[in-house]
Write a structure and sequence with these properties.
The complex is a heterodimer of chains A (359) and B (162). Chain A is mainly beta. Helices cover 7% and strands 58% of the residues of chain A. Helices cover 35% and strands 14% of the residues of chain B. Classes of the chains: A mainly beta (359), B alpha+beta (162).
Chain lengths: 359, 162
């Protein structure tokens, strides 16, 4: 293996040391965070409006031009160590198709579970919960994410929510915060979050382990085995019957990894999820990297690049560049341009503007 | 109750200005059984981030904060988390999305002491002079140094194992 020139090695070393000095301690999010209800009923939620302007609408069967979304959150403590949590997502989406504009609406329970806390290291969750694979899926609320479009890697290889049991906990290893979540989901999703884009799991087992290896720097690994039904092709919106999904489903494994490096000045996030090939299925998966840098005050510059295959039997390459204004939890504004060489319904090429609020 | 009245008077006297808030160490106090041994700053950090909800003996912890505008809370945040109260907002937003709000706040250091005295497992922070003559069951866990000594690499927090 060739040696790096000493000046280059020194430069890289100095840059890395400088980045470490910039880092401040610890606020990583670990898998399946607990519910800490202080009363029987607490209510919250978030809402968002996203407007998009596709650059090449003629190349796509149908593109979303606007989405009005809201989520109701409710949680509470029902006994000293028992809590519940509900997330109900509502959305109204307007799409532009060959035949004109179409409106679709959805109302989906994304989370609905009971949680019992035996200790910090052992919590048991039963019901419908977010799949703990990667980081994005568990922080998917529009006011918490950096871009108005979601990377394919964060939802296409797996189901966003699962019905079953989950065991999770948080603790420390050698002074480093760590967390784990392991799930068992015996049944199909009662209803996938978005039928037209999502995989479904049955007999799924898996989990995620994450550790903050350095203050602000969290690494995670995910793994799962399941029977999985393919998400329908982009643009195909009719609902698929459960029996059809079961017939089409195949045994698959999933491997994933994630990284988040967070400081008050910048954040780097990366995720990968991969379904290795089987006798009857080609391998599938992707990866993305996202960087956000504080430009001035609450304004951040954001860039993201992603590779995913297959989408329409090909490799999808997308990139996003834009600005995010985090004026506070009550107002987040994102404006950016997504670039896609072969645009489709789920990876449109064009401009996006979103307003969102956590309340 | 008399010690608490004295503490309240002392708190009022200490609250005279920003410089008074910066000149004295901040101490973490808790209502804990003696069976809970040594408590370090890392455990305090995890308790106040609600990453750890139980003391080492298995009993529930109940942290309490001063208001977000409090200079004492800001100093405690910087010393304990390495981040300001404002910089922790994204962390709490994400926790909120999972059904967790930050620890409750009380209006003053006297109220912190009252909360801790009356709440088994309660834990809060006050300026050092207020820890003199703590009520039975409440003990000082550790102190973070005053601002002019607050470089953690040179002056580690003192640990009270009692």
């Amino acid at each position: 293996m060739p040696h790096l020139p000493s000046t280059l090695a020194r430069t890289i070393g100095a840059a890395f040391a400088a980045l470490l000095v910039l880092v401040t301690p610890a606020r990583a999010q670990l898998p399946a965070p607990p519910v800490v209800g202080t009363g029987p009923v607490q209510i919250g939620g978030y809402g968002s409006v996203t407007i998009s302007r596709p650059e090449h609408p003629e190349e796509v069967e149908g593109v979303d031009v606007s989405e009005l979304a809201a989520a109701l959150l409710a949680w509470g403590r029902i006994a000293p160590r028992a809590s519940y949590f509900v997330e109900l997502d509502m959305a109204k989406r307007i799409s532009e198709t060959w035949t004109g504009r179409e409106t679709s609406e959805r109302l989906v329970p994304v989370r609905l579970y009971l949680e019992y806390t035996a200790s910090d290291l052992l919590r048991l969750r039963a019901g419908r919960f977010l799949t703990p694979i990667g980081q994005w899926n568990e922080r998917h609320a529009e006011p918490l994410t950096w871009t108005p479009t979601r990377p394919l890697t964060t939802y296409r290889p797996f189901a966003k929510s699962l019905n079953g049991l989950l065991v999770a906990g948080e603790g420390a290893i050698a002074g480093r915060d760590m967390g784990y979540a392991m799930f068992w989901a015996p049944s199909w999703n009662v209803r996938p979050v978005e039928e037209a884009e999502e995989s479904s799991f049955i007999n799924a087992v898996g989990g995620r382990f994450a550790i903050e290896v350095y203050p602000g720097l969290t690494l995670g690994v995910s793994a799962a085995r399941m029977r999985r039904s393919q998400p329908p092709d982009p643009g195909e919106t009719q609902e698929t019957e459960t029996e059809e999904r079961e017939e089409e489903s195949t045994h698959r494994a999933l491997l994933g990894g994630d990284l988040r490096w967070e400081t008050p000045r910048f954040e780097v996030t990366a995720e990968t999820a991969w379904l290795p090939r089987t006798e009857h299925q080609i391998d599938e998966g992707g990866a993305f990297v996202l960087a956000a840098v504080r430009v001035a005050g609450p304004v951040w510059g954001v860039a993201r690049a992603e590779l995913y295959r297959p989408v329409d039997d090909r490799t999808a390459r997308t990139a996003f560049a834009g600005l995010t204004l985090r004026a506070g939890p009550h107002l987040v504004v994102k404006l950016g341009r997504q670039f896609s060489k072969r645009p489709s319904t789920k990876i449109p090429d064009g401009w996006f503007l979103s307003f969102s609020s956590l309340f | 109750m008399v010690p608490l009245v004295l503490l309240a008077v002392l708190a009022a006297a200490l609250g005279g200005g920003a410089s008074a808030q910066e000149d004295v160490p901040i101490c973490v106090v808790a209502n804990l059984p003696a069976s809970v041994g040594e408590v370090d700053l890392d455990l305090v950090r995890r308790l106040f981030l609600l990453r750890q909800r139980f003391w080492p003996d298995g009993s529930a912890a109940h942290p309490v904060n001063l208001p977000a505008s409090s200079g004492i809370r800001e100093r405690f945040s910087q010393a304990t988390f390495g981040e300001s109260v404002k910089e922790l907002v994204p962390y709490w937003n994400e926790r909120y999305f999972h059904g967790t709000r930050p620890p409750p706040t009380v209006a003053s250091e006297a109220a912190v002491l009252l909360f801790v005295e009356r709440t088994p497992g309660g834990v809060g922070y006050v300026r050092e002079p207020l820890t003199r003559g703590l009520p039975d069951g409440v003990r000082e866990l550790l102190c973070v140094p005053a601002e002019d000594q607050s470089d953690p690499s040179s002056v580690p927090p003192s640990v009270n194992t009692g």
